[in-house]
């Protein structure tokens, strides 16, 4: 009975993962799990955590709803792991309050844009083997990237060989548009065809209008020339 009473007296969700250290930082709970050989995100993280450090581990993926119940979370450090896959709903539940997210130094080649664009957090994405594509371009333009790390987002692979090995920011500054794929080109062609059709219609209308006016002028001229002859015949 004393044991069960003790369990009931412990606040639910306030335990600390066995491989981590829980402490206070500026009056807020911090969970420190750095360099603990973790291969996945711990399941028993306290719900009132504000700062979460999971850096320098062997985590390979961030599943959907990984932090869903950590509503007080403001900072997540996932740098220097082996992350390759991030689910589109990985940060659901913490998007509103998260202020900092560090994903640098992983193995991330691509990421669903919905996973990051919903965040207000400052992002660090440097030193990953990125495949430079449309989703990454949209993240660069629309997300809140840490300015000090933007230059280190490099194209490990890319649709065009000349982009490989270059910083993504340099590629985009040179005028490249990674979202200008076949669909965009098809749209451009359709717009050109439509504009040409309208132009042709205007030309045809002008030609018909001029021709019609010329015919009216000719008929009116014939009428005027015939008028004196008709009057002389009448006299």
TrEMBL record:
Pfam families: LRR_8, LRRNT. The keyword Electron transport does not apply. It is a single-pass membrane protein. The keyword Membrane applies. One of its GO terms (cellular component) is plasma membrane. Residues 1-22 form the signal peptide. It is found in: Membrane. It comes from the Eukaryota. The chain crosses the membrane at residues 189-210. Keywords: Leucine-rich repeat, Membrane, Repeat, Signal, Transmembrane, Transmembrane helix. Residues 15-51 form the LRRNT domain. PANTHER family: ANTIGEN BSP, PUTATIVE-RELATED (PTHR24369), LEUCINE-RICH REPEAT-CONTAINING PROTEIN 3 (PTHR24369:SF170). Belongs to the LRRC3 family. This is Leucine-rich repeat-containing protein 3. The gene is Lrrc3.
């Amino acid at each position: 009975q004393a044991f069960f009473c003790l369990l009931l007296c412990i606040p639910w969700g306030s335990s600390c993962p066995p491989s981590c250290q829980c402490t206070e930082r500026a009056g807020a709970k911090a969970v420190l799990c750095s360099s603990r050989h973790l291969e996945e995100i711990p399941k028993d993280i306290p719900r009132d955590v504000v700062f979460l450090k999971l850096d320098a581990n062997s985590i390979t993926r961030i599943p959907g709803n990984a932090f869903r119940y950590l509503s007080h979370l403001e900072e997540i450090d996932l740098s220097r792991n082996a992350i390759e896959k991030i689910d589109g709903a990985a940060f659901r539940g913490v998007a509103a309050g998260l202020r900092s997210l560090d994903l640098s130094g992983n193995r991330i080649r691509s990421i669903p844009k919905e996973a990051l664009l919903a965040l207000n957090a400052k992002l660090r994405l440097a030193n990953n083997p990125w495949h430079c594509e449309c989703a990454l371009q949209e993240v660069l333009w629309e997300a809140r990237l840490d300015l000090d790390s933007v230059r280190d987002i490099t194209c490990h692979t890319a649709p065009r060989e000349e982009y490989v090995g270059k910083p993504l920011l340099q590629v985009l500054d040179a005028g490249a548009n990674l979202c200008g794929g076949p669909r965009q080109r098809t749209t451009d062609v359709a717009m050109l065809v439509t504009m040409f059709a309208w132009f042709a219609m205007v030309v045809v209308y002008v030609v018909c209008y001029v021709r019609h006016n010329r015919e009216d002028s000719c008929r009116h001229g014939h009428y005027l020339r015939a008028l004196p002859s008709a009057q002389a015949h009448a006299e």
